[in-house]
Inverse folding.
């Protein structure tokens, strides 16, 4: 295992070239390419190795129907991120350029691609998903002529062919002396649930005012129902440069009653604001996000990997949205259809709660906004309270494909949500939120578990017929994590009731004290009633030690670690190893903690940037759940931080020998800094 890990580290480090400030990832290798997301919490664009292109656009919380599974699926929107460029009549492609390089600037959330076309031009293109203008993207382009050239540039809106009744237009709007050219495509989403509208235009930065024609003439051409274009021609003398931008905005009836007009207004807003103003606002908002940061000295590769994970969680969330984050964030549509799972509450939410309570509030509010469908679901299945879906979409109803047993049986999600709610209050101390949103949901969750348990003859309670965190074991009784999560949710709800002056239901405390946690004869925690040493998909039992704190003595923690780590499947997601890393660090074993920290993500990194896939054998980018697990290894393992009823505390931090120091900055509502030195 160690030899394999070192080989993977060598391969990744040979592909990824880091600038020495830890904020940039640069590569000149594009033969094996998995993209990363340029996103602002509302729209996401997946990078491409091809010049002047992105792979696709993802629209957060805009769902239609998966044509194969017949369940909801987050939309791939119209792609406004592709440009065609011709130099002296020859189209630029990946086959006729040289000195290609891409650099991800995590501080500014910008991806820059630069290359040369023969001996004629040097071209640079920087892609932004504007944080300040959440429905828009901005592509900033510079063309420098090494010798005199004739240039042609085409901006495009590409509509997915599954869309219905596309309509493509180009018009030049005019108000007094201001002219505003707008390319626009409007279509119904594949199954007609939403009207989608995308507008785009060119913005000129440095057109020479001494020229007779200051702005090039735009030529409109509809290539097909699914490709709408405008283009311009321009001549550059030797050593001259042309700097311009292409901007697009995409709106739907999910968020706007008139998405067509709104997408036009947004593009006009970008057109009539300077590049400096727009990008300064974008960078200022990212600078505020980066007030929460992790700084590692002595291990630049780990620094880079951790920053990329934190960047993606910030990029996939918004504090003003009340939306959640899917396992793949805004990087792609599949797998999992862009649905919301326990991945958010158990894996992504804790790091975001530490650094950015605004985004964390959006994640919990997403659930409270869908409390009523969860209450109806509990009633439909014969229970009380609220029963949240395993896979959630915009409706809050169950969105899991019917063939998957996780939908009807993976009930721990309902406890996971209540745990996240209490942790949000623990950190923020926002009593108004607790009264209005937190406790009403937690109360319904507690009532669900009281109705869900089965009383045994000895007075204990069992939770039967569930799928636990280890999904390799369906329909089992007394699953360790499910039972532990239910115990924790019930206890937290009692605390929440007392905190706001309510009288807790006495059954909550009674049931929480009597739910069974099974043990083998030697005291090792037993995963479920019939467990007998089988391979597991991911950590289950070990979650009782962290984050649930149900098993706290060192002997039991180490026994469970040593028993279950060898049983973790190589085909499962890597989050389990993140939990093992946290637990080893908390027991003072930095060597095993660091080993498992690396094993939790290095095998899943994809060239050239180190994008995380869910498992080592896939290349779906970007697995935000894995990013959350990796960050928890650092925050709750090495840094020794924990979320308690007394707020965020630090206890027994520890450094691996590979690190000189670890600084966690911007923690909690008071933006506290923690530094650990060797």
């Amino acid at each position: 295992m160690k030899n394999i890990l070192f080989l993977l580290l060598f391969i990744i480090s040979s592909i990824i070239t880091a600038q020495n400030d830890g904020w940039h990832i640069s590569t000149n290798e594009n033969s094996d390419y998995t993209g990363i997301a340029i996103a602002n919490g509302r729209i996401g664009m997946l990078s491409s190795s091809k010049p002047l292109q992105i792979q696709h656009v993802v629209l957060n919380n805009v769902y239609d129907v998966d044509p194969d599974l017949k369940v909801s699926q987050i939309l791939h929107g119209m792609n406004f991120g592709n440009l065609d460029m011709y130099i002296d009549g020859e189209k630029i492609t990946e086959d006729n350029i040289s000195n290609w390089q891409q650099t991800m600037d995590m501080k500014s959330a910008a991806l820059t691609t630069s290359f040369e076309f023969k001996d004629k031009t040097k071209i640079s293109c920087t892609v932004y998903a504007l944080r300040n203008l959440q429905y828009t993207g901005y592509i900033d382009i510079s063309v420098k002529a090494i010798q005199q050239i004739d240039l042609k540039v085409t901006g495009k809106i590409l509509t997915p062919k599954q869309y219905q009744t596309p309509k493509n237009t180009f018009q030049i709007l005019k108000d007094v002396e201001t002219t505003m050219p707008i390319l626009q495509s409007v279509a119904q989403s594949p199954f007609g649930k939403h009207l989608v509208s995308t507008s785009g235009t060119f913005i000129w930065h440095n057109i020479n005012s001494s020229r007779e024609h200051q702005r090039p003439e735009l030529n409109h051409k509809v290539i097909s129902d699914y490709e709408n274009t405008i283009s311009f021609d321009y001549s550059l003398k030797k050593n001259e440069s042309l700097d311009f931008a292409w901007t697009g905005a995409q709106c739907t009836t999910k968020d706007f009653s008139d998405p067509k007009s709104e997408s036009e207004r947004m593009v006009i807003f970008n057109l009539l604001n300077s590049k400096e103003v727009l990008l300064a606002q974008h960078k200022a908002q990212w600078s505020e996000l980066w007030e929460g940061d992790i700084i590692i000295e002595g291990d630049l590769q780990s620094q880079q990997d951790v920053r990329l994970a934190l960047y993606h969680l910030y990029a996939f969330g918004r504090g003003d949205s009340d939306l959640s984050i899917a396992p793949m964030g805004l990087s792609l549509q599949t797998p999992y259809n862009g649905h919301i799972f326990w991945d958010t509450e158990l894996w992504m939410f804790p790091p975001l709660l530490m650094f950015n309570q605004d985004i964390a509030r959006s994640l919990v509010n997403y659930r409270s906004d869908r409390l009523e469908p969860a209450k109806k679901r509990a009633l439909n299945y014969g229970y009380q309270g609220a029963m949240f879906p395993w896979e959630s979409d915009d409706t809050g109803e169950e969105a899991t494909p019917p063939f998957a047993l996780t939908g009807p049986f993976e009930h721990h999600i309902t406890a996971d949500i209540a745990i996240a709610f209490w942790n949000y209050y623990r950190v923020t101390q926002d009593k108004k939120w607790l009264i209005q949103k937190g406790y009403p949901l937690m109360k319904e969750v507690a009532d669900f578990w009281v109705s869900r348990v089965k009383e045994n003859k000895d007075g204990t309670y069992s939770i039967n017929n569930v799928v636990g965190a280890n999904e390799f074991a369906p329909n089992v009784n007394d699953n360790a994590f499910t039972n532990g999560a239910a115990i924790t949710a019930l206890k937290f709800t009692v605390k929440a009731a007392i905190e706001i002056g309510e009288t807790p239901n006495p059954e909550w405390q009674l049931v929480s004290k009597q739910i069974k946690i099974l043990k083998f004869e030697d005291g090792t925690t037993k995963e479920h009633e019939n467990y007998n040493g089988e391979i597991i998909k991911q950590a289950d039992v070990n979650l009782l030690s962290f984050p649930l704190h149900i098993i706290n003595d060192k002997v039991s923690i180490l026994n469970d670690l040593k028993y279950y780590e060898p049983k973790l499947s190589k085909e499962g997601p890597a989050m389990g190893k993140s939990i093992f890393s946290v637990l080893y660090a908390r027991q003072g074993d930095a060597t095993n903690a660091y080993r498992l920290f690396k094993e939790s993500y290095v095998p899943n990194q994809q060239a050239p940037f180190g994008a995380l896939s869910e498992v080592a054998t896939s290349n779906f980018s970007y697995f935000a759940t894995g990013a959350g697990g990796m960050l928890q290894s650092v925050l709750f393992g090495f840094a020794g931080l924990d979320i308690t009823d007394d707020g965020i505390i630090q206890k027994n931090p520890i450094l691996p020998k590979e690190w000189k120091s670890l600084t966690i900055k911007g923690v909690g509502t008071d933006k506290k800094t923690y530094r650990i030195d060797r």
Observations:
- Residues 431-452 form the longest helix (22 residues).
- The chain has 16 helices and 28 strands.
- Residues 1-18, 208-213 have pLDDT under 50 and may be disordered.
